[in-house]
Write a structure and sequence with these properties.
Length: 227
């Protein structure tokens, strides 16, 4: 079997194991790529992720259904220069194999920490997510036109939105949620984006839990990734 690559400041390696289908080869990289774009834009913004053009991406969609999420992540991708997008350096399908990526490693390490935290407390995280989703449904916040109707919300609803947004951000280990609020200009949009972000993280956490993808560098042999 080919030698498994070691991590460096430019590359990051995820262990692959178990039986992968063609669908897995679509779902996992797509979820990882979208999570990566979000983390870069919110947690590690630079010249690529600042300015009015980027803020417009966070404010452009009504968030009334799945179309908004698709458009949001696609626009983040288009904003990212091709040279900055995650690229496959090498891939080996074996027991175990690997997926070696070229990307901003500090963002990859942040994603790793979030995915592992979710996997380690999946029941609690899912329960919190579902409770917030129910609260949104009960208050009919799924259907409102956010920009037009936000000023008609009562204080209890505004408190629920703010509390839920802060809870999701804390649960997902985001340290720069203020940056997200500044980009969206609206706590309800921030909350809906955070919920969409969690759904993509959960895809990655499920692969971790099922043993198909291992983000644990200590077990996978990349403990010196940042050395």
């Amino acid at each position: 079997m080919a030698r498994r690559p070691r991590g460096s400041r430019e590359t990051y390696t995820i262990t692959l194991d178990g039986d992968w289908s063609l669908e897995d080869l679509y779902k996992f990289p797509r979820a990882y790529e979208q999570v990566n774009f979000f983390i870069n834009a919110v947690e590690f913004p630079d010249d690529y992720y600042s300015g009015e053009e980027v803020d417009h991406i966070f404010r452009a969609f009504p968030w009334l259904g799945g179309y908004s999420a698709v458009g949001f992540y696609n626009n983040l991708k288009y904003r990212t220069p091709a040279r900055r997008r995650p690229k496959i350096v090498s891939i080996e399908y074996a027991s175990p194999g690997w997926l070696e990526l070229s990307l901003l490693v500090v963002a990859a390490v942040k994603i790793e920490a979030i995915v592992k935290a979710i996997a380690n407390s999946i029941d609690h995280v899912n329960a919190t997510y579902n409770a917030i989703r129910k609260g949104i449904y009960d208050r009919k916040l799924s259907d409102i036109k956010v920009r037009r109707e936000q000023f008609s919300l009562d204080q209890e609803t505004l408190d629920f939105i703010s509390r839920s947004s802060d809870t999701m951000a804390q649960m997902l280990g985001l340290e720069n949620v203020r940056q997200l609020d500044e980009k969206t200009g609206n706590k309800l949009i921030s909350l809906k984006i955070l919920l969409s972000f969690y759904r993509r993280l959960k895809v990655l956490a499920d692969y971790q839990l099922n043993g198909k993808a291992d983000f644990d560098r200590d077990r996978s042999g990349d403990g010196d990734l940042l050395s």
